[in-house]
Amino acid sequence: MPATVKEPTPEAERDRCRTGIEGLDNLLNGGIPRGNTVLVTGSVGTGKTSLSVEFLIHGARSGENSLFISVTESSEKLLANLIHYDFFEPRLLKEGRLIFMDLPLIYNRLGLEKPEFDLQDTFILTKVIADLVREMKTKRLVIDSVTSVCYRLKTQENIRQFILDLGSSLSSLGCTTILVSEISPGAERYSLFGVEEAIADGIIIMSNLERRGDLLRTLQIVKMRGTTHSRAKYVLDLTPVGVLLVPLLKGGSITAG
Amino acid sequence: MELPESSAVSLRMKTEHYFDVVRSILDVFAPKKELDAIYVTCTIPSASIINALEVLEIPVDHIWFVDCISQIMMSAAQKHEHAIYVESPTMLENIMLKVEYLIRHSPGDRKDVVILDSINSLSIHNNMKILNEFLHILVNTLRSKNAYTLIFSMEEYETDEVRQSVNLVCDQTISVKGD
Questions:
Q1: Above 0.95 for ipTM, yes or no?
Q2: How buried is B177 (Cβ within 10 angstroms: 0-12 exposed, 13-18 middle, 19+ buried)?
């Protein structure tokens, strides 16, 4: 008999980026391995943006520069929702610890206001984001949503190149990244183009689950390189104290929605 | 009534003693132990309990309600600032989430007592398999947070299955008698 029992770890222990969401950090055995690029994927109304924003606020509160790049929704609208969080402090914005940026403005400045990007444009976009992260000493980044960016990249090769380059640049800068991905309800893969999920270091899927007419918001970690993690499904609630998680009860009949 | 710290207790009672039990918990037990009370009501709407407490001049400053019945009744009752609502008593995970929220949200270092009113009402809306799972997770979670759990059970409506389920998770059963 061994003197102590040690959990098997697939890789050497890596420094963690605590999300600050207690339930999620527990599921991840302490947080996201620092430098990972994580795909947070799900259909509309599943809480992807709320979870991502909370990840940034907790980071900013703990002294890590945090950047939200918004692709679809205006920053103003997002900022208006922050005040509902008990843990949000306006000083984080004033001090520049927490920054919201609209990607369409960046497109505008780069002259990338076109519906389709070629490989050269993709390189420019990746470089600009990496430069921003370097200059701002960003340790946490959210792109919401990467799906909207991918729409312009068109080919699977471009998407693959974009995510690979972005992931490796940000990882080398010690930046932990969440890429928000939109999928249709009931989709059988984790991303719209099928490329993002293969390249990301981690996948957290958020969905709506229908059980006897009740709609529950759920979260499940499908993959996370660099740590052991839960693979069970959890039910979540979006509250003023942040995302709360409890195990999904398995008794009774369940149909996925 | 002396209970060990963080214990889970089943309170068996006849319907006629219901309000006396509610009053003794909310007006005697919780204030004496300086506990915040989180009252999960699946039997009658929180508004009715709050009205009864007002009549009895029991302050609700340290009492919060997780109301699992008002919304399913489609009632247009005014929402109380000490009540949060779960759409249906079948959304057991959401009950746990609301309890967790109230525990985190309550100010200060006061400990909590969570009152589940009642196991019989929950058993009307849920099968025993999922109800057992719910009780097991809820009680153990509350224990880890040093909170008391009190589970109401109405003798008249108690089945063997419900009694066994409650006995499995509770440290003790108190049968409330006439006087």
A1: no
A2: exposed
